[in-house]
Amino acid sequence: MVDSTIADARYTYIHDDQKGLLQAIDTHHIVVRRNASMGFFVKLSLLLLLLLLVANPLFLFLVKDKSVTTFLWSLLLGAVLIKLFFRRSVEKESVIIMPSFGVQLETHYKSGRTSHQFIPISKILKAVLNECVTPVTCYWSLSLLVRGEEHLLLVFKELRPPAKMLIPIWKALCSAADGKESDDTLK
């Protein structure tokens, strides 16, 4: 059951609150929106890059009698560049909050690879909403202050969703971390 959805030009936020018999699982997804015209320009630029990488050594090979190795190296370089371009492309990042157990962070890549990271609720001290300022841009990030860790743990490692999408996730993380403290006082 989808509770709420927020969308802008780059991202779509989906909140899915699943209530079970014993436990509630609170799932938050940030999905990258794909623009059809942007996909066309990406494919066109990849095609032009591939043509450039193939045409130059082919010209050198046919006209100036250069070796075949130049042609093969350029094909290998083109394949590596295309693989690198698609390797880090993220489809969505998810935060799965299980109040009794912890928080699972998931990143789904276009290549089909998925990375998971689980943080036990007992190690989470606080959820922090940061404003990151660089010389070029300013953006918001959501981090977790984890017991025993020296640095903040970024919730969204690849994406930079706007603050209006981060605030509901931050509130859910804060309530899960606060619920952990109230459970400890009852024991």
Would you mind describing this structure in some detail?
Helices cover about 40% and strands about 35% of the residues. The strands form 2 sheets. The chain has a 6-stranded antiparallel beta sheet with strand order 1-2-3-4-5-6, covered by helices on one side. It starts with a strand and ends with a helix. The protein is α+β, with helices and mostly antiparallel strands and about 190 residues long.
**Strand segment count:** 9
Helix fraction bin: 25-40%
**Cα Rg:** 23 Å
Give the N-terminus to C-terminus distance in angstroms: 33 Å
The major beta sheet can be summarized as:
6 strands, antiparallel
Provide the structure class. Answer: alpha+beta
* Assembly of the depicted chains: single chain
The average pLDDT is 80
Characteristics:
alpha+beta; 39% helix; 9 strands; single chain; six-stranded antiparallel beta sheet; 37% strand; three-stranded antiparallel beta sheet; 187 residues
